[in-house]
Amino acid sequence: MGFGKINPATEEEHVTREELKARLIRPIARELADGAQDRVVAGGLEKLIQNLGQPFPEVGRVLAGYRQMDVEARKAQLKKALELLGDRVVQNPSQPTEPRQATPGSRSPVPEALSFDTPIEALNLGPGGKKKLAELGIRVVRDLLHYYPRRYEDRRTLQGVREVEDGAKATLVGKVLSRELVKTPKKGIQLVQVRFMDGWGWKFTGIWFNQPWVLKQMPEGASMVLSGRVQKRGGNVSLMVEYFEDEGGESLSTGRIVPVYPSREGIGQAFLRRAAWRALEAFQAIPDPLAHLPQSLLPLDKALRQVHFPDSEEKLEQALYRLKFDEFLLLELKVMLQSGGSALLGRMFRVSPEMVERFRSILPFKLTGAQERVLSEILADMQSERQMARLVQGDVGSGKTAVAAAALYVAAQNGAQGALMAPTEILAKQHFENLTRYLYPLGVSLDLLVGSMSASEKRSVQERLKSGQTQVVVGTHALIQDGVEFCDLGLAVIDEEHRFGVLQRRRLLGQRPDVLVMSATPIPRSLALTMYGDLEVSQIDELPPGRTPIKTKILTQKTRTQAYAFARQEIKKGHQVFVVTPMIEEGESEATAELAAATRLREELEVLLPEVRIDLLHGKMKVEEKDAVMERFKQGAFDLLVSTTVIEVGVDIPQATLMIIENAERFGLAQLHQLRGRVGRGGLESYCILIAGETSKRTMERLRVIEESTDGFYIAEQDLRLRGPGELRGLRQSGMPDLRLGDLASDQEIIEQSRALAKAILEADPYLDQPEHALLKRELQARAEAIGFREVI
Fold first, then answer.
1. pLDDT number for residue 338
2. Cα angle for residues 576, 580, 581 (degrees, 5° grid)
3. Residue that finishes a domain, picked among 253, 268, 299
4. Do 657 and 570 meet the contact criterion of CB atoms below 8 Å apart?
5. Hey, which residues does 489 pair with through a beta bridge?
6. Assuming Cys at both sites, which of 73, 200, 418, 501 could form a disulfide with 472, CB separation 3.0 to 4.6 Å?
7. In angstroms, what is the C-alpha Rg of the chain?
């Protein structure tokens, strides 16, 4: 977007002496009418005189040092300046010479009680103004003030045609003298040639290729701002025009850092600048929802004025920081309010060093530094009176389950029950096996509750849960079915929580236990803090020692058969192979197409590898069918599994040593990394082959990140940097915002600070009911649709 960068431009005023005089008279007269407060011109009146007043040195001398003068001295000097310019309205400066023409300092009639919610038509933007802004989604003053420029051009230094250099890019200002359309005989190219004159009387030609429509935009006598590359041939200067706009007869387009707004055909930059200026001038001071807080932030009034019409790069940077802060603060507040879990009281668990040491002693391995750090964070939460709500994320194999087991053991030692809920039976059974290995030797009683159990088995488990006989239960959705009652649920661990509906999760959390959410999808901390605003975030960013990194290689369609020759070798060794084909976007017809693509691939491989036992896993199967296929694969009933992306996260297939991913460019990097983690779970040397369906430079740059790194968090950061949050699979559907200014890849510091403030605000006022939060609450309501949010727990 280039918000913080201002493009240099070279240009100058471009009109006759009489026109320049008229343009100086208007702001000087309005400054006098405004009481000589030096607020009519952005950056001050002296700056305007330095730029527009060059042909009138006597005016410059009269107004030199204007900012330092007192009000009465200013008024006297303004009258002198107007007399020097031959203005006939000095005695009645409140009547401007051209009342219809908006200038930077003009205050148009606006409603007395103007607010952010005032309809845009109240600003009197002329015929068609309301319709133009509506096309850009701008309906009330708030929309306009938050319609930020997409870039800026530095037009403070005015330069003549004489001073531009051949081959350089320049921005010039010129008055249209003549125009013509020239057709070249050989290649049939249409050239638009427009003659311009700058403010010093020097002429140049603007040139457009095959854009005949430009002629209609160039009425003789109009003032145009043009950017492009300069060509000098002898004494002739031409500009190969890349961008132009009607200067609109105002000093909003020259002599300053100029905003360039996102727009569409028929809506000019001069109009958008005038609209933004009118909106800003309509407020004596823009009300600030954070004014009562001791924040070292730029006030909102200054931030909005500077983001539209910056005085300097420094002030623009401060304004952007404040407006980004507001975006993230509102997002964090929305998520926390929606979850209702920002400051709930929970239970306080007693944790002793002996308790933790006893747990460590039964582990067949030593916890890594990252596991120890995350365990300390969890135990601190459990000892606090506030309900724990923590996300633990880490790569497959990083040891999340061992840390969760420690927390469940502490809960059991405090006489409370623990529950671990997984999205599928096969994962639930795997967790049950692991937790039994860790907790059973410590005297903790465990149970499994899944849908495939018989009615009598389920009843027995339910009775033991209700009586408190079972201390830890592992299960699927069966844990939240009717008839399941806990004696005293103290800790709920939810694995891959995005697989559960909000209401399902809340049924498990009715007794307000401490909550631990586990995810094997590493995402950047900045993204985790915004997606899971109500959860504290812990990262296990270290793999246990002795794990062999999976070797990764990129192949193209031309060398694709090498992948399957290698698969044959691995299968001969008694190993197993995954082949994944890309998922097509969701929808009934697409699901059918996805199934057809996977089926075709299976048939192709049956011909290519006739001796290999092959099975298929796809999105149209029922949950029980998927579980059955994975269970058979785990038992070694077949050698190669062709699958869409529904391969279960976290399922261990110890003999699987090769992952082949077709059309790998269609996956996000984080998703590719996660698929790669399906192999190498049994200590055998393992491999991943990425087959690129297309090989553009950008595609290969992305895939090389996976080839060169096995660090899930680094890969997730690169995915965010290369693709942006909007393109990361699943984030749009989960309500991630389209941030206007904020950048999840680079604004982690702002996110951390805004999140801390959001938590402090809600701890003091959980529903924003206090009078000092009324403005903040209104902003939340107004921006709810634009910001979006994600319900977590």
1. 67
2. 150
3. 253
4. yes
5. 417
6. 418
7. 34
Q: SS3 of 144, please?
A: helix
Question: What is the tens place of the pLDDT at every residue in 403-418?
Answer: 999 999 999 999 999 9
Residue 164 lies in a domain: yes
Whole-number pLDDT of residue 578: 96
Q: How many CB atoms lie within 10 A of CB 365?
A: 11
Cα–Cα dist 303/317, whole Å: 9
Close Cβ partners of 98 (under 8 Å, ≥ 6 residues apart): 22, 26
Residue 245: give the domain boundaries: 159-253
**Buried residues in 254-289 as b, exposed as e (16+ CB within 10 A):** bbbbbbbbebeeebbbbbbbbbbbbbbbbbeebebb
pTM for the model stands at 0.59
Residues of the chain falling short of pLDDT 50: 1-4, 8-15, 88-112, 341-342, 585-588, 726-737, 786-793
Which residue bears the tokens 């051949």?
166
Does any domain span residue 138? no
Encoded tokens for 745: 């890849």
| Paired tokens of 679 | 């192999």
Rounded CA-CA distance 125/102 in Å is 9
Number of domains, the chain: 4
Whether 131 maps to a domain, the answer reads no
Counting Cα atoms < 13 Å in the Cβ hemisphere of 348 gives: 4
